[in-house]
Structures are given as structure tokens and as C-alpha cells.
Design brief:
- With 199 residues, the protein is mostly helical.
- The protein has a domain of 47 residues.
- The protein is 56% helix and 0% strand.
- The chain has 7 helices and no strands.
- Helix 6 packs antiparallel against helix 7.
């Protein structure tokens, strides 16, 4: 069964008009060992090689950047005669700039922490003054007016819209009545707010 070598079957081309190929073209096609599947595999292998090379380049660049940032961070205060690290505060792509941003929030702690304020390294602030400033900010935030509770009619209409959309997830346009009722309820709240503010 497997002792004889298998010969490739000759290619048969059918066309409406007579087509003729030169003998050199036919010989070149028959001598070519490459098939569609081998071409696809070769192309896929080339793409995978390029993607892997690019991924390793990016990984190396990221690990180098992480190593640079890790070495730049210190747990000890700078020496008194050392110049302040002003360059880190100006470049927005550094870790120090990110951590000193007023928009940075550390979510890894178990209790909420106020955002780190953007201050230079040699600000001369003490722990007590920073704590006092944070306490003042907390008092200001607590003194702000809290958001009013949503009226029961709006909450009920909202629940009906959500329920309808869950039931009719394939046909959400069938929930137009519930959406319109929700809009009416929100409109009532908006008018009441405008009247209250306008006085």
C-alpha cells in the first residue's frame, strides 16, 4: 500500500473559450513544490515571527522603563546637597509626575485616601500641616450639599424601562412606552428644579 510513490494528479482546466499554455509555463507549474497550503503556512509563519519580534521589543522596552523608574524611586529622603528632582515633575510621562498629579487616586489601600497634591520635593511642609490641610478639605467636602434622592416616580419608571429591556432584549424598540413614561417623569423633576432655582 505505501510502498509505491504517489504521483500528483494532472490539473485539468475547463473554460468556455480555448485556452492554451506554453510548455514552459506548464513545466514550471508542475516543478513548483509549493501549494496554497504551504504558501499560507509560510505567510503565517512570517507574520508570527514579526509579531513575536515586535512583542519582545515592546516587552524589553517596558521592562527597561520599569527598571529605570524603579531605580529612580527611593525610600530615603534626598541628601541635603543633592539638587531637587525638577525634571521628573515636568515630564508628564514619568511615574513621579503621575503620582503627584491631583487626579491620581490610589485604589490599592483599604481605606480611602485623598489624592496626592502636586508639590515640589523641597516644599518644607510637615506631616502635621499636610494633615491639617487634608482635614480642612474633608470638612469642605462634607459641607457641600449632598445630591438629592431620586423621586419614587422616576425610580419606578426607570425600573420599568430596565425590566422591559431585559425581557425584550432582542426587540428594544418595543419599550418605547416605558421610555416615554420615564421621560415624562424626568421632565417633571426638571421643571420642579428650574422653578426652585428660578425663584
Amino acid at each position: 500500500m505505501g510502498s509505491g510513490s504517489s504521483k500528483p494528479a494532472p490539473h485539468v482546466f475547463t473554460a468556455d473559450a480555448p485556452v492554451s499554455f506554453s510548455q514552459s509555463v506548464l513545466d514550471a507549474l508542475q516543478r513548483n513544490p509549493e501549494t496554497d497550503s504551504t504558501r499560507a503556512l509560510t505567510t503565517e509563519h512570517k507574520l508570527q515571527t514579526r509579531v513575536n519580534a515586535e512583542l519582545s521589543r515592546i516587552r524589553d522596552a517596558q521592562s527597561q522603563a520599569l527598571a529605570d523608574l524603579t531605580s529612580a524611586l527611593t525610600t530615603h529622603p534626598p541628601a541635603p546637597d543633592a539638587p531637587p528632582p525638577a525634571a521628573h515633575g515636568r515630564d508628564p510621562h514619568t511615574l513621579a509626575a503621575h503620582l503627584s498629579s491631583p487626579f491620581y487616586q490610589d485604589h490599592s489601600a483599604s481605606k480611602p485616601v485623598a489624592p496626592v497634591m502636586d508639590t515640589p520635593a523641597d516644599s518644607g511642609r510637615s506631616h502635621d500641616s499636610v494633615e491639617k490641610e487634608l482635614g480642612d478639605l474633608r470638612d469642605k467636602l462634607a459641607g457641600r450639599r449632598q445630591v438629592a434622592q431620586v423621586p419614587e416616580g422616576v425610580e419606578r419608571a426607570r425600573g420599568l424601562v430596565v425590566q422591559c429591556l431585559r425581557v425584550k432584549d432582542r426587540r428594544p424598540l418595543d419599550c418605547w412606552r416605558e421610555v416615554e413614561a420615564f421621560r415624562v417623569e424626568v421632565g417633571k423633576v426638571e421643571r420642579a428644579f428650574v422653578e426652585r432655582v428660578g425663584r
